[in-house]
Design goal:
There is one protein chain. This protein has 201 residues and is an alpha+beta fold. The chain contains four helices and four strands, in the order ααββαββα. It has a four-stranded antiparallel β-sheet with strand order 1-2-4-3. Strand 3 and strand 4 form a beta hairpin.
C-alpha cells in the first residue's frame, strides 16, 4: 500500500519564497535605478554649476575688457585731439609769415600801371579787385603770379571798363592761391628749404 504525501504546503512555501525573492530583486533594482538617477542628477547639476560659474567669470572678464576698451577709445580720442591741436599749431607756425610773403610778393609781381582796390583771403585762396591801364596789364599780372614761387593758379573772374578820375581803365577781379613751403625734411636735415608747393583751393 503506497503512502500519500501532501505537497501543497511545500509548493505554497516555494511560491511564497519566489514572490519574496521577486520583491527583493524588484526593490533592489528600483533602489539601484533611483541611486543611478540621483547620481546622474548630481553629476549634471555639478556640471551645470561649474558652467554657470565659468559663464559668470567670463562675463566678469568681458566687463573688464569692455571697460579697458572704453578707456583705450577715450585715450585715442584724446590723442586725436592733441594731434589736431599740434597740427593747428604747426600750421600757424608755417603760416605766420605768410601775410608778409604775400604782400611782399604782390608788390614784386605787380606790373606798372596796375594797382589794387581790395583783397580778401579765405584759407589759401586770395581774391583781389583792382584797376589796370589796359587788359594787357591784367594778363601780365596773371603771368607774373603763375611764375611766382609763392603764388599759383591765377584765375580771372571778370574784366570790365571803368572810369577813375575821368580816365578810362580796366577794372578786374581775379583770384590766386598762396603756396605753402615744404620745410619739414629740409629743416631736419639742415638743408635749405625747397621751393613751396602749390596748394589748390
Amino acid at each position: 500500500m503506497m503512502a500519500r504525501i501532501n505537497l501543497l504546503p511545500h509548493r505554497s512555501e516555494r511560491r511564497k519564497r519566489a514572490r519574496q525573492h521577486f520583491f527583493v530583486v524588484a526593490g533592489g533594482t528600483a533602489l539601484l535605478g533611483a541611486l543611478i538617477v540621483v547620481a546622474m542628477h548630481g553629476f549634471y547639476a555639478a556640471k551645470i554649476d561649474s558652467q554657470i560659474e565659468r559663464n559668470r567669470f567670463l562675463k566678469s572678464e568681458i566687463a573688464k575688457l569692455d571697460k579697458e576698451i572704453a578707456e583705450i577709445n577715450k585715450l585715442k580720442d584724446e590723442i586725436a585731439a592733441l594731434l589736431a591741436r599740434k597740427q593747428v599749431i604747426e600750421t600757424l607756425q608755417t603760416d605766420r609769415a605768410q601775410t608778409v610773403h604775400l604782400l611782399d610778393e604782390l608788390v614784386r609781381q605787380m606790373p606798372e600801371g596796375v594797382y589794387l582796390k581790395s583783397m580778401t583771403q579765405r584759407g589759401l585762396r586770395i581774391t583781389v579787385v583792382g584797376y589796370a591801364q589796359s587788359n594787357a596789364r591784367v594778363s601780365t599780372l596773371m603771368r607774373n603770379i603763375e611764375s611766382s614761387p609763392w603764388l599759383a593758379n591765377p584765375g580771372l573772374v571778370e574784366v570790365k571798363a571803368a572810369a577813375v578820375d575821368k580816365r578810362r581803365v580796366s577794372e578786374f577781379n581775379l583770384y590766386f592761391d598762396v603756396k605753402r613751403p615744404e620745410v619739414k625734411d629740409e629743416k631736419a636735415a639742415g638743408k635749405p628749404p625747397a621751393k613751396p608747393a602749390a596748394v589748390k583751393g
